[in-house]
Amino acid sequence: VHLSFTSTETSTDGVVQREFTLGELTGALWMPASAEQEGRPVPLVLLGHGGGTHRTSPAMTGRARLLVTGAGIAAASLDAPGHGGRPVDTVQGEAMAALWRAREAGEPEGPVVVPFNAHIARHAVPEWRRALDALLALPGIGGPVGYFGLNMGTAIGIPLLEAEPRIAAAVLGQFWCEESLAAAARRITVPLEYVLQWDDEHIDRAEGLALFDAFGAAEKTLHANAGRHKELPRFEAASAVRFFARHLLGARH
Amino acid sequence: VHLSFTSTETSTDGVVQREFTLGELTGALWMPASAEQEGRPVPLVLLGHGGGTHRTSPAMTGRARLLVTGAGIAAASLDAPGHGGRPVDTVQGEAMAALWRAREAGEPEGPVVVPFNAHIARHAVPEWRRALDALLALPGIGGPVGYFGLNMGTAIGIPLLEAEPRIAAAVLGQFWCEESLAAAARRITVPLEYVLQWDDEHIDRAEGLALFDAFGAAEKTLHANAGRHKELPRFEAASAVRFFARHLLGARH
User: What's the predicted TM-score (pTM) here?
Assistant: First the structure.
C-alpha cells in the first residue's frame, strides 16, 4: 500500500498543502515549497486532531501552517478512526450517543470520553506508525519527528509515543489522568511541552496536573492558562512551534 | 532629587547600558540606541533582582539585553535595600544570619526568607515608585510599563503591582504563598506570566501553585518546568520578552 496524493495546493507564502490516502487512511501533509525544490529534507511534526474534528480542521491547518512558515518544519495529520468521513464502528457510535446523553444531563464527560478515546487510540496508534513509515519515505521529509496533539490527540499521542521510538519531542495536553495512560506517560522520556486550562470545566485541575506529573521526561514544561476548556490561547500554538524548532532543528531558538 | 547617570556603555548590537543614582538609590538602565536618536519613546520593563544579587547581575543584564534586542523595549533595574552595596539594616543582618543557620542545619528556608523579603519589600516599593517617576521623565522612555522579577523580585513585585497603577503587565514566580502576599495577589488584575519549578526543593509545589492561583488576573499563564529551584530554563527569559512584547507594544507578537 502506497501513499497517494489526491490534491495539491500551494499558497503564496510558500506552504504546499496536499491531501493523501494510504489504503483506508486519509490525511494531509504541509511542506515548505523550498524543501522539495532544494532537495534538503526537513523535520516532520505529526498532528493529532481532537475528538469530533478531522485532518484539515482549522486547528490542524493553523498549526501546520505555523510550523512551515515559522520554523520550516513539515506537518502531517491523519483522520482518526471514525473521523473525517471514515466509518464509525459500533463502539464509537454507542460512545457518541452516551456523550450526548451525558452533556444533556449535565453529567461529567470524562467517564465517557476516556474509554471512548482509549478505544480509538488502540486503532490509531498502528495507523500512525504505518503513516510515519510512508511519510519518512517521501522526498523532502527527513527527521527528527515530533508529535503535537491535545485532548483526543493526547489520548492517542501517549500510547503512540510509548510505542514509537522515532518520535523525539511532543506537545500534549488537556486530558484526564486515567491509570493506564498515566502508566504509559511514566515510560515517556522525550522532551515535552504540556498545556492545560486552569479553569477547565471538564477536567479536574488536580487530575490534569497529575497527568503532567506522571511523564518520565527530565525536560518537561507545563503551560497552564486561566480559562475554560475551549479557551486555550492562540499563542500556545506559536509556543509549540518554538518548542519543536528547539528540539527538531538542532539549533538555538 | 534627580536621576544622575554615572556610566554609559554602548555595545555593538545597539544596547546602551547606563548606571544611575537617584538620591541614595542605585540602578541601571538599558535602552535601544535608536530610541533616543529617533525621539520615538519605547515601553519600559522594571527588573527586580533576586535575593543576594544586584542591579547588574547576570540575570538582570541578560533579561535587559533580551528585552532591548528582541523587542526594542527599555529595561531598568534597582538595587533592593541591603543589596548592590547599599547599607544592610539590623533586621536584614539578623535575617541573613538566620538564613545561613537554616541552610547549615538543613531546615526549610521559607520561614526565614518570607518575612525577610516582606521587610525588604516595604522599603523597596516606595523606592521603585520614585524611580519610575524619574525614569518616565527621561527622553526616549514612554510607556506602557511592565515588571519582571522572580524570587525576592516577586516578593517586591506583588505589593508594587498592588500599589502602582502604571504597571500594565508582569512576569513573576518562584515564591511561597504567604497569606498577605496571596491577599495582595488577589487584587492584581494585570496580565501575568508566572514561572515555577516543578521539583523546587525550597518551595512546596502546592504552595507555589496556590500563589499562582491567587492572582486576580483574567489573563494569566503558568510556566512550570521540571527541575530544582535554580534550574529555571533559559528559554523562560525569551518567553517573558515575547509576553512583554505582546502586552506593551500593542501589536501582534
Answer: 0.93
